Amino acid sequence: MTDLLDVAAMARWIQRDGAEAILRGMAQYVEDDYRRFDRFDKTPRVASHTPFGVIELMPTSDGELYSFKFVNGHPLNPARGFQTVTAFGALADVDNGYPIFLAEMTLLTALRTAATSAMAAKHLARPDSRISAMIGSGSQSEFQALAMRAVLGIEDLRIYDIDPAAIDKMCRNLEPLGFRIHRADSPQEAVQGADIVTTCTADKALATILTDDMVAPGMHLNAIGGDCPGKTELEAAVLDRGPVFVEFTPQTRIEGEIQQKEPDFPVVELFEVLSGAHPGRESAEQVTIFDSVGFAVSDFAGLRYAREANLGTELMGQVDLVADPEDPKDLFSLVAALSPVG
Question: How many C-beta atoms surround the C-beta of residue 80 within 10 A?
Answer without folding.
Answer: 8
